[in-house]
Amino acid sequence: MNLSAVQATAQTDRGFVAFFTTHYGDVAKALYLLTRDSAEAEELTQEAMTRVYERWSRVRTMDSPAGYLYRTALNLHRKHARRLAVAAAIRLPGARENADPAQVVEDRSEVMRLLATLSVPQRQVVVLVEWLGLDSEEAAAVLGIKPASVRTRLHRAKEALRADIGDML
After folding, report:
1. C-alpha–C-alpha distance, residues 81 and 111, integer Å
2. Residues of the chain whose pLDDT is less than 70?
3. CA nearest 130: which of 150, 145, 112?
4. Which of 60, 59, 113, 51 is nearest to 79 (CA)?
5. Residue 169's pLDDT is what?
6. What per-residue confidence (pLDDT) applies to 9?
7. Are the C-beta atoms of 86 and 39 separated by less than 8 Å?
8. Engineering a disulfide at 70: which of 15, 56, 142, 149 sits with its beta carbon 3.0 to 4.6 angstroms away?
9. Predicted pLDDT of residue 53
10. Residue 28: its pLDDT value, please?
11. Within this chain, domains 1-92 and 94-169 share the same CATH topology
């Protein structure tokens, strides 16, 4: 390998490392919410990142490399869910530091219960739009659907959650 090839590889690797550092945590958290299993989410996140790295020379030139990553992760989740058809307990990341531990557990339990009432497509749009902050066009690109479908799924998910929360009051 000549010097220019080594330099190009090093530059590519640095670019991917920056991409990995920026997006790994968010993808893992999103998959936590979708899979309801920390080990499965971690495994899917690693596999998605591996696939992106294998195609990095092409992915880095895309309009939205992060969109490609999320779509890869969601496709892996769908494939895995079809194969296993198992739902495990969700573990939400990011507990508040000074919060009462009992309240944190109660809050997590309630979020888990509410998310579990949604269909997988509804859960996906809630995670992408409400939790990760993507707009409907970005979420549509990740999911491979139309932006209008994202908005419809989100609306139905919110209505279902409002109905469920209203029953609790």
Report:
1. 21
2. 1-12, 80-101, 103-105, 107, 166-169
3. 150
4. 51
5. 36
6. 52
7. no
8. 142
9. 93
10. 94
11. no
**pLDDT value at residue 86:** 27
Burial class of 107 by CB neighbour count within 10 A (0 to 12, 13 to 18, 19+): middle
Tokens of 22: 């920026």
Spans of all domains in the chain: 1-92, 94-169
Measure the CA–CA gap between 34 and 76, rounded to whole angstroms: 12
Q: What is the CATH number of domain 94-169?
A: 1.10.10.10
Q: What is the pLDDT of residue 95?
A: 43
CATH number of 1-92: 1.10.1740
* Strand, helix or coil for residue 68: helix
Structure tokens at 50: 């591996």
CA atoms within 13 A on the CB side of 71: 14
How far apart are alpha carbons 62 and 12 in whole angstroms?
Answer: 15
